[in-house]
Automatic annotation (TrEMBL):
<feature type="binding site">
    <location>
        <begin position="206"/>
        <end position="210"/>
    </location>
    <ligand>
        <name>ATP</name>
    </ligand>
</feature>
<dbReference type="GO" id="GO:0006085">
    <property type="term" value="P:acetyl-CoA biosynthetic process"/>
</dbReference>
<comment type="pathway">
    <text>Metabolic intermediate biosynthesis; acetyl-CoA biosynthesis; acetyl-CoA from acetate: step 1/2.</text>
</comment>
<feature type="binding site">
    <location>
        <begin position="328"/>
        <end position="332"/>
    </location>
    <ligand>
        <name>ATP</name>
    </ligand>
</feature>
<keyword id="KW-0963">Cytoplasm</keyword>
<feature type="binding site">
    <location>
        <position position="382"/>
    </location>
    <ligand>
        <name>Mg(2+)</name>
    </ligand>
</feature>
<feature type="site" description="Transition state stabilizer">
    <location>
        <position position="178"/>
    </location>
</feature>
<dbReference type="GO" id="GO:0008776">
    <property type="term" value="F:acetate kinase activity"/>
</dbReference>
<dbReference type="GO" id="GO:0005737">
    <property type="term" value="C:cytoplasm"/>
</dbReference>
<keyword id="KW-0067">ATP-binding</keyword>
<feature type="binding site">
    <location>
        <position position="15"/>
    </location>
    <ligand>
        <name>ATP</name>
    </ligand>
</feature>
<feature type="binding site">
    <location>
        <position position="89"/>
    </location>
    <ligand>
        <name>substrate</name>
    </ligand>
</feature>
<feature type="region of interest" description="Disordered">
    <location>
        <begin position="35"/>
        <end position="55"/>
    </location>
</feature>
<comment type="similarity">
    <text>Belongs to the acetokinase family.</text>
</comment>
<dbReference type="GO" id="GO:0006083">
    <property type="term" value="P:acetate metabolic process"/>
</dbReference>
<comment type="function">
    <text>Catalyzes the formation of acetyl phosphate from acetate and ATP. Can also catalyze the reverse reaction.</text>
</comment>
<feature type="active site" description="Proton donor/acceptor">
    <location>
        <position position="146"/>
    </location>
</feature>
Amino acid sequence: MSAVLVVNSGSSSFKYQLIDSETEKSLASGLVERIGESSGHTTHRGPNGTSERSLEIPDHTVGFRAMLDAFAAEGPSLDENPLDAVGHRVVHGGKRFFEPTIVTPLVEINIEDLSDLAPLHNPANLEGIRAAKKAFPDVPHVAVFDTAFHQTLAPEAYTYAIDAELAERHRVRRYGFHGTSHKYVSETAAAYLGRPLGELRQIVLHLGNGASACAVDGGRSVETSMGMTPLEGLVMGTRSGDLDPAVLIHLARRAQLSTDDLDELLNRRSGLLGLSGRGDMRDVRRAAGRGDDAAALALQVTVHRLKHYIGAYTALLGRLDVLTFTAGVGENDAALRAEVLSGLEVLGIRLDPERNATTSREARVISADDSAVTVLVVPTNEELEISRQSLEAVRGATGG
Ligand SMILES: Nc1ncnc2c1ncn2[C@@H]1O[C@H](COP(=O)(O)OP(=O)(O)O)[C@@H](O)[C@H]1O
Ligand SMILES: CC(=O)OP(=O)(O)O
Ligand SMILES: [Mg+2]
């Protein structure tokens, strides 16, 4: 059996999955967490169940080694499942990368060059690539970019209304992110409903630690809420999402915040964390349930912003057929889904409370039978999509 190893690196963690190249079955998956802290943690799910270890993981190279140790100790054996490719999630591909791309030294330089446009993500993605190349020097490594799916945005959607020449020189425009997830989820939604992708107008809400909305017309991304960087748009775990750009100017002048301070503030100390002191939605919800006003407001701001985007994207699409929730919060937080959709009957959206409250790991309908818009929960699987695209790239390169 041959397989694809997929690495989804974040700033302080990475997720991985070993996926059978023929059957697409997940042979193993896991998570390496708290990289850079003194007490790192690995979770590995293989053929013998789940195993966990705590150890110091100073960087991604050590983290990658810890993952290989878990494969060696718990299986499945990487010798018995030779790798066709290692697929890497890379968040920012700029204007250059639209396709899954075999990683060469030049590609690495380009990914590094885009780091200032995705400071939480691209440096970590690159560290993961370098660690993986050291461990598997003879296997093709493929980068799959979050930005790729949004290459179909029209100029009026990707252009910011600032000095055109300055914007061009500094690559300032909307790129959009979570594209691998938006693509996978919108295609899965159409297949699940047995309706032609080309005829559907969809909104996908990817609500994880990072969060973004995407309007998908006939399978093409036509608008998305993240912008030049993964900071714009929805309220996220630690990121602010939308705000008046003059807030930055004001804080620079009045609170003497430097550009690095502002970067840190908006990317790492805002969103749910900034509003309520907690960046994890489960903690925010628990606190709100106990009567914590700051947590309740954080939820209200999150919900208000989501309604705003659903309305705007329905208008842009001209009609809405399918609305899908995905990622950690979208898949699991039934209360949030109900809050977001309440009052949206004007758009033809009617939730079925019982269907919404059901927990499941499968794609499912949560709208009422008389809802004009079909509302779904579809678990995302960025790793599966990356493995598919990695195999395509490798087979394309070898003409196989
Ligand atoms: N049962 C749940 N209810 C609410 N939120 C949840 C639940 N389970 C997970 N989450 C949220 O999902 C988020 C992580 O989502 P995920 O898609 O894994 O994000 P990322 O890939 O960005 O790390 C966490 O911040 C957590 O708040
Ligand atoms: C692009 C992005 O925000 O990714 P994540 O949600 O994994 O942080
Ligand atoms: Mg994610």
